[in-house]
Design brief:
Number of domains: 1
Strand order of the largest sheet: 1-2-3-4-9-8-7-6
Largest sheet: 8 strands, antiparallel, barrel
Helix content: under 10%
Radius of gyration: 14 Å
Order of helices and strands: EEEEEEEEE
Structural class: mainly beta
Distance between the termini: 29 Å
Shape: globular
Number of helices: 0
């Protein structure tokens, strides 16, 4: 069975999206300040944040004021993925969601910053 991914739309102090990949028994997570790229040619900053418990993959609702991440969380996209390759922390993924479909890459930059983008598919 393929691992799952989710993208939460998180309307907190600043609107952002949270990309979460089921890996190593947790949800590896990145905060993406702008809407994730659905097509090739768009690159997004993704800031690595703390891992989340696996049961968070289906979470939607309100995080109360005063708690970390206070605001409204909704599922923007989700599905399964395959890890196509991993080299020097660079992840190449095949995402199968409703919005995010195709090959995507997460490239580590400096510190907790990563680059997230979709590669061109055949015929694009």
């Amino acid at each position: 069975m393929s691992p799952r991914f989710v993208v939460h739309r998180h309307d907190a102090s600043r609107l952002h999206w949270d990309l979460r990949l089921e890996r190593e028994g947790v949800l590896k997570s990145w905060a993406v300040p702008k809407e994730p790229p659905v097509g090739p040619g768009v690159k997004r900053l993704a800031v690595e944040v703390e891992d989340h418990d696996l049961d968070h993959i289906d979470f939607e609702g309100e995080i109360p004021e005063g708690e970390y991440g206070a605001g409204t969380v909704s599922i923007w996209d989700g599905g399964t993925y395959d890890l196509l390759s991993e080299h020097d922390r660079r992840l190449k993924l095949a995402l199968r969601g409703k919005r995010l479909r195709g090959e995507y890459v997460l490239v580590p930059l400096e510190g907790k910053n990563w680059l997230f983008f979709r590669t061109k598919g055949k015929g694009e």
